[in-house]
Amino acid sequence: MTRLNLLSGSYTEGAGAGLKLLSFDTASGAFELVCAYGGTPDVSWIAFSPSSRTAYVTDEMAARVGAFALAADLGSATPLGYQPTGANYPCYIRLSPKGSKLAVANYGDDSVPVFAIDGATGALKADPTVLRGTQPHELGHAHWTQWSPEGDRLYAVDLGHNEVRSFPYAGGAFTGGPETAYAMPAGSGPRHLAFHPGGRFAYLWTEYANLLTALRREADGTLTRINALSALPEGFSGTSYGAHIAVNPAGDTVYVSNRGHNSIAVFSIAGDGSIGLRQIVSCGGDWPRFFILIGTHLVVANQKSDSLVSFDVAADGTLAPNGRVFALEKPVCLLPI
Q1: What does the buried/exposed string (b/e) look like for 53-77 if buried means 16 or more CB atoms within 10 Å of the residue's CB?
Q2: Which of 4, 59, 70, 241 is the most exposed place for a label (fewest CB within 10 A)?
């Protein structure tokens, strides 16, 4: 039996322990709650620095991000302070390649504040660099941000302005931008993007259109469309919103989740980066805001049914439920540490 430690994030309605420590059995797919860290409300996304053992979290409803030093035995989390994000609903965070900065996506507008990190303590410093687009800021909804695989650009997905933006980055500082890396039709609502392990391709997932778009990354940082497919079954007429996306380590499969249709869609990735629909399977609960690949398992965080549901992953990437369901209040993210 092999155990893996996972941090989980949950909505808590403004109080309590949104950050928890779970133990996952990689052989059976079973979960165990190890402990809950108090004073961590409404954790909708987590980042972790192994070198300093610092967990970074969003407090989405209070418009702030915080840092916590985890004990060596993971039994406690010492608060290192919160910083305001300057706009409502910070929903995604990402550490820079060297771990010296934390980028935040603010859903409340188009802003991406980038905080410097104190190298001695791991705490977040005040007065972040704030990156924005060129359109009316209040109409934007930044929902995802991440450095390129090479670390030379920070990308941001703006659901409100229907575009992916990039900001050149070198020597620990931003050197230009914003640049439109890829634009979508009005109303598409791009939400999250995932890079292919090889860095040559990227996959953009929309919240409103339930459309997965395969993109080729160009030398100048822009993205060129390869093909695009719906993640909903033909003839579906209900309401559904795209949520999360992940590419497997082998780079031959990409997964997305549908909230409303309550499913996980599985797509093959060809050698040219194009995608093909392989499977749509029930998520085993309600409102799959997040999921994570862990070895031969895929675990879905079903927000509204308060559950983690485990699936076995076949050699071809398709999913089969293995009967493992773990009760957890409003789970919305998971991170191995």
Answers
A1: bbbbbbbbbbbbbbbbbbeeebeeb
A2: 4
Q: Which of 182, 242, 176, 180 is nearest to 209 (CA)?
A: 242
Q: What is the percent of the chain where pLDDT is above 70? A: 100
Can you tell me whether residue 92 is helix, strand or coil?
Answer: strand
Confidence of residue 198 (pLDDT cuts 50, 70, 90): confident
| Token digits of residue 65 | 């991000």
pLDDT band for position 177 (50/70/90)?
Answer: confident
The mean pLDDT value for 159-175 works out to 96
Compute the distance between CA of residue 57 and CA of residue 60 in angstroms, rounded to an integer: 9
What's the CA gap between 83 and 157, in Å, rounded?
Answer: 22
Do the Cβ atoms of 263 and 279 come closer than 8 Å? no
Mean predicted lDDT score pLDDT of the chain: 97
* Model confidence pLDDT, tens digit, residues 243-252: 999 999 999 9
Could you tell me if 308 and 299 are in contact, meaning their C-beta atoms sit under 8 angstroms apart?
A: yes
Tokens 């965070």 -> residue: 93
C-alpha span between 34 and 38 (Å, rounded): 13
Distances (CA, A) of 26 to 29, 85, 281: 5, 36, 22
Q: How many helices (H) and strands (E) would you count in the chain?
A: 0, 29
Backbone phi, then psi, for 312, in 5-degree steps? -85, 140
User: Predicted confidence band at 316 (pLDDT cuts at 50, 70, 90)?
Assistant: very high
CA–CA gap between residue 310 and residue 288 (Å, rounded): 12
